[in-house]
Each structure stands twice: as C-alpha cells, then as structure tokens.
C-alpha cells in the first residue's frame, strides 16, 4: 500500500515537472530563457522545453502596441496655452534588451513620450502646431526612437490626436478666418470688375470701328424692351454724339440769323437828312454845313 502511494506521488511530481517543462510560444511572441538568473537563449515560436526549476521563460510580445499619450498642457513659442494629446505606436525589436535594460518598457515610453511632446510642441508657434503637424510628429518620433532603441524598442509612428484651444483664441481665429474670406471675396470681385472693364473697353473699340454695330445694339435693346410689353418707348442714343450734333445745329442757326439782318445805312446811332444822306454829309461825301 505504501509503495502505491509513493508511486502515485512520483507520478504526480513527474507530471507537474513535465507540465512546467513544456512551454508554448505564440507566433507573435518570443521567449527569453533565464538559467539560474542569467539569459541563456531566446526561443522561437512553437512548443519549447525548458529545465524545470533551473530555467525560467519570459514571453515578449512582438506586435505593434498602441499607446495613447494623455493630454498635456503646453505653452507654445508665441505664449499660447493649449492642451494637446497624441498617440504613439511602438514594437519590440530586441526581446532581451526590453527585459534586461528596463523594468517596464510601456510605462517608460509613456513618460518619455509626454515630456517629448511638451518639449517639441513648445518650440513651435500655434500656427505651426496647427498646420505643420507632420514635422512635429516626425520630430517626436525621431527623439523617442533614439532613446528607446537602447531598450530594444522601436517607435514607428507618433501622431498628434487632439489640440484644445482656449475659447478666446477660438473666437479670435474665427474673426481672422472671416476677415480672410472677406478679403478673398473683395479681391475676386475686383478681378471680375477689371475683366469686365477690359471686355467693355474692347467692345467699345469694336463699336467705334464699326458704327453700325452700335445701331444694331440699340435695335437689340429696343427689341428686349418690347418683349416686356412696356407702353413707354425708349430710344437709346449716344449722349456725347447727341450733344455735339445739337451744338452744331445751334451754331449753324445762330450764324444764319446773323447773316440775314440788313446793315443800317445811317450807321450806328445815325439819322438821315432830307437828301437821304447822314446828317453833315452831301451826296459827294463832303460836309454840307456852311463854313463860318
């Protein structure tokens, strides 16, 4: 009976030892084996056997890890306070370093990512932080990658996720955007007026070269007015031409009136005598007054 109990204990110990000796490493993992506290080997994915009690295996994930960077209160280079959050993507490239070189690689990357985010964004103005995010992302990723490579980790991507602005700054930016849109609208309207004036100038030059074109345009205008069934007839005429023709007519009439008046035989202010000549003159032009 005692023999059976001893045999059962031995079998149980062997089963437990066998279970602890067999390790399964997934495809997205690698196993780092420690033998009596020292790194002995790195095991690839699959079923792996270790020596119980003497050896110990720690599995390391090789997949890309998504780590959100919590919102940070940052003062930009132009002294504007903003809250910026980001997200970082990293993966382990050296399983041994990720275990031996640092205690908790995820927590370490989280902390250094926050400080790097404040440092890099603080070197840029607000406009650059809003418009040139690709450069800021690349700078943050480069700094993080340089630091984390010593830990066996590669930072692949860093992206700014959210930028919170003060309400006063949002209102100021809205007014600025509205003024910019009004400026563009006025510029576009001015360009349209310039093009229209240029086209009208070309049209006027064409009509001056071809007077009948102006008459045809006047007839077209009359036809358009007639479509509306108006009782008032409007006849368009060139103002300057009409004024010039009217001035010519008045001058001509005035000149004709001047030529039609006969000359006064007595001269200006003169009186005729009994002989039909002005007083003081004879028929031969000599004076008719007696000499004294």
From TrEMBL:
CDD domains: SPFH_eoslipins_u1. SUPFAM superfamilies: Band 7/SPFH domain (SSF117892). Residues 20-177 form the Band domain. Residues 260-292 are annotated as: Disordered. Residues 272-292 have a biased composition (Polar residues). Pfam families: Band_7. Belongs to the band 7/mec-2 family. This is Slipin family protein. It comes from Williamsia deligens.
